[in-house]
Specification:
4 domains, three-stranded antiparallel sheet, mainly alpha, single chain, 24 helices, about 500 residues, two-stranded parallel sheet
């Protein structure tokens, strides 16, 4: 049986003031993340409804009162203001506030839907607050279950996308979700005909769009960052994300008018933050788009697909270095299989650009890491040939690891894409000497399928001369100079390192 407000209040009185402060802090932080209530209680709710209707091409036919009652709306506004102003409250007032939220059917469900951690953590929190019965009843209710499942699934897609691609725009995420979730076209089961919290805008696929997705991901998914203009980021970008936020605040400080989309567009276009650069570079390549089951495996940040290259390297290790890994496993008190798993995972991490802002690994660093790791496992080679064999297997693994810079594709897949869609290779000279050589062989080179452009890398500089000596007429002209030519200033440096910078 669900607890009443009075029962919850009496239960909470047993805690010390500091304990109540921590519990109340969770309520104050989580509840305002429910954007259903924010839309229904906001002064601009009419404008927001129009935006949502336009994006999803559906009318919202229910009133705000079917989302939240006037009394609950008043308490929600007060909590939202507390969260914003960080107002200090005494123990008694905090208990009354918590009992008001956790003892209300609407606000309690809204709190549970916005709770970003696992259901087990949510249940444990409710036990601590003296409302375990209320949670058990809510958790079994069919409409709540559908809404909660929908919110968790959106969180999984956002998290998996951030882990697989590093950065994704909300529009791309929406397209991805619709591709995977054809069942979202069935809107039944997300609304109640009677009772509290009858309708929802945020926790139903009926109104899925960039606005609802942006706010749902931004408010409920703790495993990613979201920018104002709709980018969803892996947490490794958090520092750059916060720096851009500070830059935004500084840029618009003192602007005493409502910011327009043009204002925001101009600002964000001027930003060259690492995650924006990564998105631009990755977008030049085809996106890796696996089956739904495989895609959702990337919810686990540590997941790397064990492909054929990994299996071959594992078999080679088991055949040639089993004793070394068995000895290492004994020291770590794990199985030999686990020891090899750990080593293979380390190799995949080193080859990947994940967690490193999309910066591609240097092959020399990878090779050095490989042999230093093998040395740590006390692996001894029979000779150079065996070293090269293992290196070959490791390089195949590196070429089969999915990279952010490649839009989730592996280096091998990108090479195949380039072969399937070949671009004309253009050869340009780096010096005047090379230009003469290429000019002489231009026709033969182009027969081989290459294009020669003698002017692409050249700069034109003005030259002055006296054909009849110093007393004659000065002649003006231009001369082509290439990056590797000596700089005409007489410095002795190449043009590209001197005046051609």
């Amino acid at each position: 049986m669900k607890e009443t407000r009075e029962e919850i209040k009496n239960y909470l009185k047993k805690y010390h003031a500091q304990e109540i402060k921590l519990l109340c802090g969770v309520v104050i932080q989580v509840l305002p993340s429910n954007h259903d209530f924010r839309i229904a209680t906001g002064s601009d709710e009419g404008d927001i409804r129009k935006v949502i209707e336009r994006e999803c091409e559906r009318k919202i036919l229910f009133s705000n009162e079917t989302i939240i009652s006037k009394d609950d709306a008043e308490l929600f506004r007060m909590i939202d203001e507390l969260d914003y102003k960080q107002t200090k409250l005494g123990k008694t007032k905090q208990i009354e506030l918590m009992a008001g939220v956790l003892g209300s059917d609407t606000l309690f469900e809204g709190f549970c839907l916005a709770f970003h951690d696992s259901d087990d953590s949510l249940e444990e929190f409710c036990k601590l607050c003296g409302c375990a019965g209320r949670y058990q009843e809510c958790a079994l209710e069919p409409v709540y279950r559908k809404r909660r499942k929908y919110g968790r699934l959106i969180a999984e897609y956002a998290t998996a996308a951030a882990n697989l691609y590093g950065v994704i725009h909300i529009v791309e995420l929406e397209e991805l979700i619709w591709e995977y979730e054809r069942s979202f076209r069935d809107y039944k089961g997300y609304a109640r005909e009677t009772g509290s919290y009858q309708n929802t805008i945020m926790f139903t696929p009926e109104f899925i769009g960039t606005y609802t997705l942006h706010n749902l991901v931004g408010n409920v998914v703790a495993a990613v960052c979201t920018t104002l203009d709709g980018y969803i980021l892996h947490l490794c970008f958090k520092e750059d994300y916060e720096w851009e936020q500070q830059k935004f605040i500084h840029h618009f400080k003192g602007v005493n008018r409502e910011l327009t989309e043009d204002d925001l567009g101009r600002f964000f276009c001027s930003c060259d933050t690492s995650f924006r650069v990564l998105h631009d570079l990755a977008s030049e390549k085809e996106v890796y788009f696996p089956e739904k089951k495989e895609f959702l495996r990337y919810v686990d940040e540590t997941y790397y697909a064990e492909n054929l290259a990994c299996k071959k390297m594992r078999r080679y290790i088991e055949k040639n270095f089993m004793s070394a890994f068995s000895q290492a496993a004994k020291q770590e008190e794990i199985t030999t299989a686990q020891c090899i798993d750990d080593f293979m995972y380390e190799i995949c991490v080193q080859a990947s650009d994940r967690n490193d802002a999309g910066i591609e690994r240097d092959v020399n660093d990878f090779v050095q890491f490989l042999f230093e790791s093998l040395e740590a496992y006390d692996v001894h080679f029979d000779g150079t040939e065996q070293e090269n064999e293992l290196l070959g297997y490791a390089m195949n693994v590196a070429n089969s690891v999915r990279l952010w810079i490649n839009h989730g594709c592996t280096p091998q897949e990108v090479r195949r894409q380039m072969q399937a869609h070949p671009e004309e290779t253009v050869i340009v000279p780096g010096s005047s000497h090379a230009a003469v050589f290429l000019a002489e062989g231009k026709s033969e080179i182009e027969k081989m399928g290459f294009h020669v452009d003698l002017d692409a890398s050249a700069s034109q500089i003005p030259i002055f001369g006296f054909a009849q000596g110093a007393d004659g007429e000065m002649k003006k002209g231009v001369k082509k100079i290439y990056p590797n030519d000596p700089c005409p200033c007489g410095s002795g440096k190449k043009y590209k390192k001197c005046c051609g910078k």
